[in-house]
């Protein structure tokens, strides 16, 4: 009796999960034997990963270019002045602080440009 109850519980749990997935959208497909089966659609994110990656790379490249052109002391002076402003400026200072990746890219840019 417990084995049958366990099988029933597992089946109910599996059906509940499938129902939750199908509530977000589904599509009908036909199998080779002619049976039409509903399959849940994958939920895509609002912002593609490629856009996030390109945004991150462009911010790092911008920071490296500024660091290369202003120098470390001038760049840090501007970051410190941003850090004394409003909350939005403080958030910008946090994003624009010197990190190892942008610093390494700035060193390579200095070798190429100067």
Write up what this structure looks like.
The structure is a single chain. This protein has 114 residues and is mainly alpha-helical. It folds into two domains: 2-39, no CATH class; 49-113, no CATH class. 71% of the residues lie in helices and 9% in strands. The protein is built from four helices and two strands. It has helices at 2-23, 49-83, 87-96, 100-113; strands spanning 26-30, 36-40. A two-stranded antiparallel ribbon has the order 1-2. Strand 1 and strand 2 (36-40) form a beta hairpin. The longest helix is centred in the middle third of the chain and has 35 residues, at 49-83. The relative contact order is 0.08.
Task: Provide keyphrases for this structure.
2 strands; 114 residues; mainly alpha; elongated; 2 domains
Helix-strand layout with pairing:
Blueprint: H1 2-23, E1 26-30, E2 36-40, H2 49-83, H3 87-96, H4 100-113
Antiparallel strand pairs: 1-2
Helix pairs in contact: 2-3, 2-4
Short note summarizing the structure:
With 114 residues, this protein is mostly helical.
